[in-house]
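Put briefly, the fold is written as integer tokens. The lines below illustrate.
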Amino acid sequence: MFQTKKRVALICTGVFLAAASTAVFFSCKSKSQKIREKTYEYNQEQLGKVLLQEDISEETRFAVIKNIAQNMLSQKDYPNLILFLSEWVENHPDDQYNAYWLLVTANTYLEMDSNPLAEYYFERIINNYNDLMISTNSGEKVSVHFMSLQHLVQISQNPVNRISYFNQLITRFPDKVKVTELYVRLALEYEKEGEWALALRAFRQFLAQDDASTIRISDLPNAFANARQFVDFYNSSKNWTFETLDELVAAVKKAISTYNPGQLDSYKSRVNFFNISWRQDENSSNPQATFYASDYMRGNRIRFSDTLDEISTPTEAYLRTWGWTNAKVWYFYFRKINFPVDPKVHGRWEWAGVYYGDKM
């Protein structure tokens, strides 16, 4: 008991000294300012005295520490607040409210724009402390773990950690989060880590949600289309792909030269093939079922450039053709397939779409 009381005294003394030390700088301030500062110092001192009492109940102790912390927050005395709470947690490991004190500490670091330190304390809460329900100003009960996870998904830059946070939010707090959105975000984190099978599973879970096709995610405007494409491509035969770009271009040119629209159509990608103008977004293209080469070749002599267009890159290629019924000029768009989840098709080439008209 003597040791515990001594530690409390040291902490509280630090609070008093921190408050008192500021008085030196206020000699030129207004009378009202001096009164406020003196009141702050007095309140902190009185609260500290209550905290030193041996027969104090846990509820009273919680209220006292919270008031001390709130006073420091009101003064934006962040360094001393962090010192006070972190030392309290270290010296009182059995305090049932330690998760809350660390939450206040983490939020204080956020106020100081110290995200890495805030992340450290949020992680300490979810990894080392039982969850705790606290009351907000509105009287609502909120989980400390839930609040910590919400902050962590916002500030963490580590995909492995973010995967853990998203999974915890989905499994532990499904009624408090937008599960549909979290599934697609989880899939994207798996992609970053090269966990393609897990990314596929998360995309499928996303698509299985009732609101997947209607959800609006500001920074992921094409979430549904991209997830649909990923899953559909995985489930497809992929028998339209070619080992090399040269083989694909040669096959397309031969189908045009021999006036064989059926053969040409067989080379189209079966997943998300687009036919649009250069001004359009490929995600707003017409369904591939409406596109048949025979509708645009009939009675026309179709020609093509000998070489690929100059804007081609190692992963995307364009072939200029002309003579079609509509738009006259078409650019065939070929794409190197980036799909590590299936090594047999990853790195092959596909005819992915058509751009109408000359380049912009």
Q: What stands out?
A: The two ends are 80 Å apart (CA to CA). The CA atoms of residues 242 and 248 lie 6 Å apart.
